[in-house]
Design goal:
Elements: H1 2-10, E1 19-27, E2 33-37, E3 40-44, E4 52-60, E5 65-74, H2 87-90, H3 100-118, H4 124-127, E6 143-151, E7 154-160, E8 167-169, H5 178-193, E9 208-215, E10 222-228, H6 236-246, E11 250-257, E12 269-275, E13 279-283, E14 286-290, H7 300-314, E15 321-325, H8 331-336, E16 342-347, H9 350-363, E17 368-372, H10 375-384, E18 391-394, H11 403-412, E19 416-421, H12 424-434, E20 438-446, E21 456-463
Parallel strand pairs: 3-5, 10-11, 15-16, 15-18, 16-17, 18-19
Antiparallel strand pairs: 1-2, 1-4, 2-3, 4-5, 6-7, 6-9, 7-8, 9-10, 11-12, 13-14, 19-21, 20-21
Helix pairs in contact: 3-12, 5-6, 10-11
Length: about 475
């Protein structure tokens, strides 16, 4: 009997196609409105906090339902008209219909929700700052990765539509730097003109899969990467010639080969087709060489604000030993190097480590060293050798820190951990583990991706 009672409690009280009234309480982690019908949660993309809507149920899961807005009975004061003509089709942005001030409040609230759900932080409201926003929250992304396809014989490039496998052609994107979309539009035309084979994902035939462009915002240098299914690139010389003629700002033309059936963009092999292997970017007074696969923050303007927060929270005196885990091309470590004793960083991508060491050498930082591998391998090794970090900075992917790394931090016991996060849910889960030995001092959200539901943050933890 008890088992049946439990099952009854989680039985959904809504059906697909049903229209239900909802008051939207908050935004979820993906930017969707969250409301309740008879105490059961309903996620409604496009609905905003404090709105009263009629939603049509589109999907029913075990513990929640999904719906779409049929009618808004009471509209939020923060609702605005999205300026992008393909906003609702594309799915690349989730919050263009919310005022920027409203976005900053919502992003702080997304962090609050994550810690309330997963964490055990005392006095959370006092420790969680207001979100640091952007003065001009448009045209900020320095990198575009557009899938390539054919539509009625014409080469198109863009993103897959929200919850679909339909490729949306994007000629202009108002969150991308215009230079990146200019290059993609020209390359689409060059591929069309030269009749170069385009990859068909369903048939798994064809050649060009993805066009990746990145600009060094401070230098104007652009890198073009063509992701192909095979190494052989017919009409390669003609292609290079046309790119150089039409796009003189492109200083690096690369090819990456990915023949796998995968959602990952890059494969393992990368070749220089023409020009330099890297482009240069400058942050503050630091210059970085960026290779095709190297990770680098997508919003340079906000990156400076983010890294300044890391530097402030690290509280450096010039003597500290710092580990920069998930270091990429060394951006965070080198940002701290002038006020630290020694920086040691690591990353599993070898290209990034090559770039990081080059970047340190170019700047004259002989106190910064980078190695290939995981922090959970290197940190215990260094401790055994008598080198113990005072501060560990982590900037993991969306999946959060590796469990082994968290255990390593708890074993090594640095005085301070500065956690740079791009996913509040995994941040809160990881912090919960670290609070066995650490206390949370401060959480600072930073808006790195205006118009989207993403929120980055810098969390400072000190040894109890």
């Amino acid at each position: 009997m008890k088992t049946n009672q439990k099952r009854e409690k989680v039985e959904m009280k809504v059906k697909v196609g049903q229209h239900v009234p909802l008051t939207i309480k908050r935004l979820g982690i993906n930017g969707e409105g969250v409301g309740y019908f008879k105490k059961q949660v309903v996620f409604v993309p496009g609905a905003l906090p404090n709105e009263e809507v009629i939603a049509e149920i589109t999907n029913v899961k075990h513990k929640f339902a999904e719906g779409r807005v049929k009618r808004i009975r009471k509209m939020s004061d923060d609702r605005v008209k999205a300026p992008c003509p393909i906003y609702e089709k594309c799915g690349g942005c989730q919050l263009q219909h919310l005022s920027y001030e409203g976005q900053l409040k919502a992003k702080r609230d997304i962090v609050v929700q994550a810690f309330e759900r997963h964490g055990n932080v005392r006095n959370l409201e006092k420790k969680l700052e207001q979100t640091i926003g952007m003065e001009e929250p448009w045209k900020y992304r320095n990198k575009a990765q557009f899938q390539v396809g054919l539509l009625k014989g014409k080469v198109i490039a863009g993103l897959y539509g929200a919850n679909s496998h339909r490729l949306i052609n994007i000629n202009e994107c108002i969150v991308q730097r215009p230079e990146t979309t200019k290059v993609i539009n020209n390359v689409k035309q060059i591929l069309q003109d030269l009749k170069i084979s385009i990859y068909d994902e369903r048939k798994r035939k064809g050649l060009v899969r993805t066009i990746v462009t990145r600009i060094g915002v401070s230098t104007g240098e652009v890198q073009l990467v063509l992701i192909t299914s095979k190494e052989e690139l017919p009409k390669k010389d003609l292609l290079i010639q046309e790119v150089k003629k039409r796009l003189p700002e492109v200083k690096s033309i690369m090819q990456n080969v990915n023949g796998q059936k995968t959602s990952l963009i890059f494969g393992d092999k990368t070749f220089t087709l023409d020009g330099k292997e890297t482009i240069e970017e400058v942050l503050g007074d630091l210059s970085f060489d960026l290779s095709a696969r190297a990770f680098f923050q997508l919003n340079p303007t906000q990156t400076v604000k983010l890294y300044d927060e890391v530097k402030k929270e690290a509280g450096l005196t010039g003597k500290e030993k710092i580990v920069d885990a998930y270091c990429g091309v060394g951006t965070i470590g080198l940002w701290l190097a002038d006020e630290a004793g020694e920086i040691r960083g690591m990353d599993v991508i070898e290209d990034s480590i090559v770039d990081a060491n080059k970047n340190a050498k170019a700047k004259g930082y002989d106190n910064a060293h980078y190695v290939v591998g995981k922090a959970e391998y290197w940190m215990p090794k260094w401790v055994k050798e008598g080198w113990k970090p005072d501060v560990v900075v982590v900037d993991p992917p969306r999946t959060g820190c590796d469990e082994k790394l968290l255990k390593t931090i708890l074993n090594v016991k640095p005085k301070k951990v500065v956690y740079v996060s791009c996913n509040p849910s995994t941040l809160a889960k990881d912090v919960k583990i670290l609070t066995k030995l650490y206390k949370v001092e401060r959480i600072q959200p930073v808006d790195m991706f205006p118009q989207t539901a993403h929120v980055e943050s810098v969390t400072t933890l000190s040894l109890k």
